[in-house]
## 1
Amino acid sequence: MRAKIFGMSSWGTVSIVFRHDLILSEDRSTERERSRGFVVISFHRELTTENCLMDRIATLNEILTENPKDAFARYGLAMEYSKQGDFDRALAEFSILLENHPDYTAGYFMAAQTLARSERKDDAKKMLSDGIASARRTGNLHAQSEMEAMLGELG
């Protein structure tokens, strides 16, 4: 099944576009997307089994093989690795993401959370400081306040 990342919220909901003849459920398409032959689905929480996790990782890796600088796919892959507790792989993906997209503010916040979960508090603080600077550059006040709060919690 071929898929392409369509969009992602700033905090992690991934939407994928499938050809309409491949999937007919979870239709969240706009009229414009349907008229172009696509169906948009969200799979942030719907797919929860281990097989689905591996399918998501495989799909995201396939997308990244075609376009290594795809920010949505890179972020999604980092999030999948983080969710399964594979912190080293997650952090490697966040690093690639932020190297190619230094203003991808959500990447800093989620990387900092991953660092904190892996008991790397000082690295998490540095990531949050970098993320706060990114949020200021991009005018993302919500992300800035979230990261400032986490920074305060870390001490």
## 2
Amino acid sequence: MSPGGTPTLPVKAGPRQPSGVSSSLEQPRLPPSPPPLSTPSASGRVPGTEADRRRELGRFGEAYAARHLLEQGMVLLDRNWRCEAGEIDLVLRDGRVLVVCEVKTRSSTRYGSTLEAVTERKAARLRRLGARWLAEHRLRPDDVRIDLVGVLVPRQGAPRLDHVKGVG
């Protein structure tokens, strides 16, 4: 608790799981490779449309990013948190800092890099969403940081990940 009676960001050894978040978020399962167009997705549908393929690619990128961040010592607090104002891909704790993380996944750099996808407008929206998340969870961390993880998944070869801390 802070001096004003507001809970502070948890710093104990184990992750704090907000209500509705399963402990399976601690160890996201990483698929061996992004889903090809002809195999069923987790929902059982064959991702035959471009929208289905992009959705599966995004899920892969988020799982890949979450695993990387956990390996770096962060604690996953929430995933795909939504409100009427938008969505936060990943909410994590890095020591006593709350991290609001946007994950951008691409299969090529044809339309720019993954990191170019976050504009100042998007960063401002992430700051507002982070404030909403904190208010809902009644936490007062020492600091809040917005990170961006870009995942490039080429047709051949291993995915490449870029993590930029403090983008906004």
## 3
Amino acid sequence: MTRRLLPLLFAATLGTGCATGPRTPVYCAELRGAGPASDALDPDATGSARLELGGASIRFHIRAANLGKCVATHLHQGGVGVNGPMAIELNPGFTGDTLDGSIPVDTDLAARILANPSQYYVKLHSLKFPGGAIRGQLRSCP
């Protein structure tokens, strides 16, 4: 009798799964220098950014290649090709290819980013291009 009940109990639990909480919104950006028509001028540097907006904080992972010393990492408000105002400083600068961190964010700013992420972009500033080296618009991560 027990041998017959075990397969039935196992089958009954297959559909229950694990409960999951709300997903943290995650946005990505491919970072490039777009040339003279842009505010990101480095033709050789490239990178990527991944931002997670979780309540009152932004967690970030930034990669940059051929950039040299990064003197500032910002999130700006503005559409494609628009040199918009800085919304928040992610990091005052780093040396190397990667940067991981987390910063507190105002709930009003977080709500504005969540409502329209494509109107924000990540911008890295370097010693060679202090006005902006590479940038990329936020989009949902694949």
